[in-house]
Amino acid sequence: MRAQSKFFVGLFLSATLSASALAGSDWEVVALADGKSPANINGIANAVWVPNQFNNPAIGQDGTVYFRGLIAGPGITNLGATANHIVLVKGDASGWSVIARNNAGVPGGTPAGAIFSRTASPNNSIVSANNISEDGGVLVSGFMTGPTIINSGTTTQNDTAMWFVPANGSPVLLAQRLDSCPGTAGALYSTAMTAGSGQRTNSLGQSLFSVSLTGGDTVTANNSAIVLLKEGADELVMRKGDPAPGLDGLAVNPDSFGLFLNGSTVLFSGKLVGSGISTANDSVYLTSAGSAGDGVRIFAREGDPIPGFKGLTIANTSSLAFGQRPLANDGTITFVATLGGSATALDNSALMTENAGTFTILLRRGDAIPGITDSVDPNFAGKVFSVPNSTGFVRNRNGLLAFEGILMNADGTPISSPAPSTFFGVRKADGTIITVARQGDPVPSLPDWTMGSLSGTTSLCVSDTGTVVFRAGMSKSDQSESGDALLAWDEAAGLRLLAKASSSNAAPFPPTGDTNFTGTPINQLSLIGSTGNNGDGGHTGFSTTGWLVVRAGDTANGRYAIARIFLGDDAAGCPADVNNSGAVDATDLAAVLAGWGTTSPDIDGDGSVNAADLAALLAAWGSCN
To answer: What is the DSSP letter of 531?
Structure first.
């Protein structure tokens, strides 16, 4: 683990002990927005957080929290060109460091003299998407004014940019609107260079982005591209109209959505263009994982046979669906496919993986589910697996798959109301399936409450230590209240309640949501969910080491909080595994070299990053045991 202050080490160990013994009982509120409590921001005296203006927080491997919020107080205004009320910060309850603020200089001072400012929409001068890398680097983007900044015109507007602010080291400008696009003859980025929710950024300071192009050799047939933004020289991944790998005479138009990054490995979808192409065979899915050289390969195409499964094809009626982190560190791709060929209506969908040309079915329509197919409960007995929610599944680095499942009758017909039709499950790396929760089940520790649908709303996330966290809508048996339960599961401790938010449905029943977040009963609980993913194969709201961060709110009283809890095992991993990926590899080496001469990542604990740390890292190279 990285060297921390004595305060943080004490806090970390305390959280570890309490999480091990009383998982879910010791939340720490790190920020409270009630209009009067101090925001505790370094360098900004007497500021308070503005209620209901926290964006989704992110959390690092060491428990550091990152978020964008609005502040108020003496000398702070939210008006037009002078607005200085937006801050992007990192830290914890002991204090917050400002990463970016509107009407202040941009990270690293490049472009020279530029500041974050957007008169027409001051609340958006700094983009709200909180995208971090696994080692705590932050992707910052927004709108600028300054001596060289132009905010109008189709060929002159250059007022948006992205920066990478590493955990240790100097910020770098990744890209600015009207920068040159690599691999082209003078084409320029015409897209606003602002980060989107869920954009993936890795610990190397690289971020995958889809751009529109203008100028130079740009024509309609090649006016967009996917690029890997990085310091020094961006990398062109694919341009609209580029040749389709392995398909002579055909071209690919890459999609602008569903871009996945793990390290420098990419995954994305596109459409084929050329002779013989129709809507039945035009969708393709491309990756650099397992590709020869520096290029990409097509790993799946509509209508094509699935290697290793005689008679089965990728159906031409549906695109593949990807969950949160479909691209694993070892190049394994996880996805849902509609099956064609010999598949029937009873088995024509599957949750699958692909690695270097080898396909594996993890779950298939019609499969039996323990605790459901064999249930004595008439609501579940005889029901079988239908499909997962199209994006409600995630697989951690150790092969544990968590998923939102939808059930059907054994004859393939949908389950009619009021019988429950959803469940939450996990599939272990050895293939064992465990039913974690079923729609209609009692909520743990709340016997008078039952769970609602477990598909599409759970915001599921999973750590590499094997803990799964998800949200379940719930209602009280007498219908006097409804709300959300935040639940955690691991194989050793089982299912347990972490937090509860509720609203009263009828007078005179008061809500009974938890009061330890805002001091009043909360009626909101938010996880980042499917958009909270970094470019290193991890989740930004639930770190691979077990740190979880949430937003909680009491809308009735206008009080809002950000809180964290530790649900991991401090003994997991090894000291040289700087980013807690489960292995000591090139990413850890890069972190040590970047931190050379500083105090982090101090592997041997001597207070400095030096040759001794490098030697310890090389000695531990490979998988952590």
So the answer is: G
C-alpha 31/C-alpha 63 separation (Å) is 14
Tokens for 182, please give them.
Answer: 């690599």
How would you class 507 by CB atoms within 10 Å of its CB: exposed for 0-12, middle for 13-18, buried for 19 or more? exposed
Beta bridge partners of 223: none
| pTM summary value | 0.87
Tell me the per-residue pLDDT of 473-529, one tens digit each, with 9 for 90 and over.
999 999 999 999 999 999 999 999 999 999 998 888 889 999 999 999 999 999 998
Which whole-number Å values give the CA distances from 437 to 75, 251, 313, 459, 472, in the listed order?
51, 46, 32, 15, 10
- Give the Cα separation of 250 and 275 in Å (integer): 7
Q: In what order do the strands lie in the sheet with 384-395?
A: 384-395, 401-408, 422-427, 433-438
**DSSP letters of 384-450?**
EEEEEEEEEEEE-TTS-EEEEEEEE-TTSPPPPTTS--EEEEEE-TTS-EEEEEETTPEETTEEEEE
Relative orientation angle of helices 586-594 and 611-619, to the nearest 10 degrees: 180
CA-angle at 140, arms to 145 and 208, nearest 5°: 115
CB-CB neighbours of 509 under 10 Å: 14
Structure tokens at 371: 């605790």
Q: Contact at 8 Å (CB) between 570 and 13?
A: yes
pLDDT digits (tens, 9 = 90+) for 346-401: 999 999 999 999 999 999 999 999 999 999 999 999 999 999 998 899 999 999 99
- The pair of structure tokens assigned to 41 is 């921001």
Where on the phi/psi map is residue 205: left (φ > 0), alpha (ψ -120 to 50), or beta?
left
Count of alpha carbons within 13 angstroms of residue 362, beta-carbon side: 29
Separation of alpha carbons 61 and 64, rounded Å: 7
Contact assessment for residue 266 and residue 237, using Cβ atoms and an 8 Å cutoff: yes
Helix (H, G, I), strand (E, B) or coil at 529: helix
